UniProtKB/TrEMBL annotation:
Keywords for this protein: DNA-binding, Transcription, Transcription regulation
Protein name per its UniProtKB record: LysR substrate-binding domain-containing protein
Taxonomy of the source species: Bacteria, Bacillati, Actinomycetota, Actinomycetes, Micrococcales
PROSITE patterns, A to Z: HTH_LYSR
Residue ranges occupied by any HTH lysR-type domain in the UniProt entry: 2-59
Pfam families, per database record: HTH_1, LysR_substrate
InterPro entries noted in UniProt: LTTR, LysR_HTH_N, LysR_subst-bd, WH-like_DNA-bd_sf, WH_DNA-bd_sf
Transcription keyword on record: yes
Entry coiled-coil feature ranges: none
Length: 282
C-alpha cells in the first residue's frame, strides 16, 4: 500500500514543478520533501522524477503515479467525509473564462468533483464580462475571470502579460493596417488591442469576429491575423510577435476569483482553495 502522506508530497512536487514550492505548499522542509519522494520511489520500485534536468520532470512512471495518487487521495478524502458526516452537498454554479480551459483548470475541477462527489458542480464557460454580469444577477456562485489589475474585486490568483500572438512567419509592414483576430464586442482583450493600437497611431481592421477561444486560435492558425492573448496560454504552434512586428505593449491582466456573497460559503471556499492551491500553467 502506498502511504498517502508520501503521495500527497509527490503530487505537490508534480503540480508545482519544484521541491521548494511543494515544501512551501505543505509546510515541509525541502529535505523532507526529497525524502518523501525517495521513499515513494522505493515503495514503487520505480524512478518517478528525472533528476538529471534543471527542472523537475516526471518520468513515464511518475506520470502514472500522479494519476494514481490523485485517485487514491480523493478516495481517502471521500471516505473521511462520508464517515465523519461532513460530506459537502448541494450545488455550486461555477463560471470560468473560456481560455482558462487551456490551463490545468479542467484537471483541478475533475479532482474537486472526485473529492466532493455529493456536490453538484455546474460549469459555465464564457467571456469574463458576461460571467461577471451573471454573477451580479445571482446566476452564478463563483467565477474565475480575467480583470484589469487594480480593480480590487475578488481574489487574484495570478497575473499574466497580454501580448500579440500569431502564426510564426507572419509578415506585417509598419504602415499596413494590423489584421486583428478578436472576440466579439464587448471583450476585454478586443478593447485592450484597439486601445493600444490607436494610442500608438496604428490603423487596424477586424479580420475575424468570434465568440470562443477556439475561434480565435483557428483564425490565427489560418494566418488571418494577430490576436491579443495571455502570454502563458499561447499554444506551442503559435508565437509571441509583439517585438518582431513592432506592435505596441498591451499590459497585464489578473486571473481573479470572485464569489457571490449570497451563495453558500463552504462550496465556494472549497473550490477557491482548490484553484489557489494548484499551478494553473506548467
Amino acid at each position: 500500500m502506498f502511504d498517502p502522506v508520501l503521495l500527497r508530497t509527490f503530487l505537490a512536487v508534480a503540480e508545482t514543478g519544484s521541491f521548494t514550492r511543494a515544501g512551501q505548499r505543505l509546510q515541509l522542509s525541502q529535505p523532507t520533501v526529497s525524502q518523501h519522494v525517495r521513499r515513494l520511489e522505493t515503495q514503487a520500485g520505480r524512478i518517478l522524477i528525472d533528476r538529471d534536468t534543471r527542472q523537475v520532470r516526471l518520468t513515464d512512471n511518475g506520470d502514472a503515479m500522479a494519476g494514481f495518487a490523485r485517485s487514491i487521495l480523493a478516495a481517502h478524502a471521500s471516505a473521511e467525509s462520508y464517515f465523519s458526516g461532513k460530506a459537502m452537498r448541494g450545488r455550486l454554479r461555477f463560471g470560468a473564462a473560456d481560455d482558462f480551459t487551456m490551463t490545468q483548470l479542467p484537471r483541478i475541477l475533475r479532482d474537486f468533483r472526485a473529492l466532493h462527489p455529493q456536490l453538484n458542480l455546474e460549469l459555465t464557460v464564457g467571456q469574463s464580462g458576461a460571467l461577471h454580469r451573471r454573477l451580479s444577477s445571482g446566476q452564478l456562485d463563483l467565477i474565475f475571470i480575467k480583470q484589469t489589475p487594480g480593480t480590487g474585486e475578488g481574489t487574484r490568483v495570478s497575473t499574466d502579460q497580454m501580448v500579440w500572438m500569431a502564426l510564426d512567419g507572419i509578415q506585417l509592414g509598419p504602415d499596413e493596417p494590423v489584421p486583428l483576430v478578436s472576440y466579439q464586442d464587448p471583450s476585454m482583450s478586443r478593447q485592450m488591442a484597439i486601445d493600444a493600437l490607436e494610442s500608438a497611431g496604428r490603423t487596424w481592421r477586424i479580420t475575424c469576429n468570434t465568440r470562443e477561444v477556439n475561434g480565435v486560435l483557428s483564425a490565427v492558425r489560418a494566418g488571418l491575423g494577430v490576436a491579443v492573448f495571455p502570454r502563458t496560454l499561447i499554444p506551442g504552434d503559435l508565437v509571441k510577435v509583439s517585438n518582431r512586428l513592432g506592435l505596441p505593449e498591451i499590459g497585464d491582466v489578473d486571473f481573479t476569483l470572485i464569489a457571490n456573497p449570497h451563495s453558500a460559503a463552504d462550496p465556494v471556499d472549497a473550490l477557491s482553495s482548490a484553484i489557489m492551491g494548484r499551478t494553473l500553467v506548467h
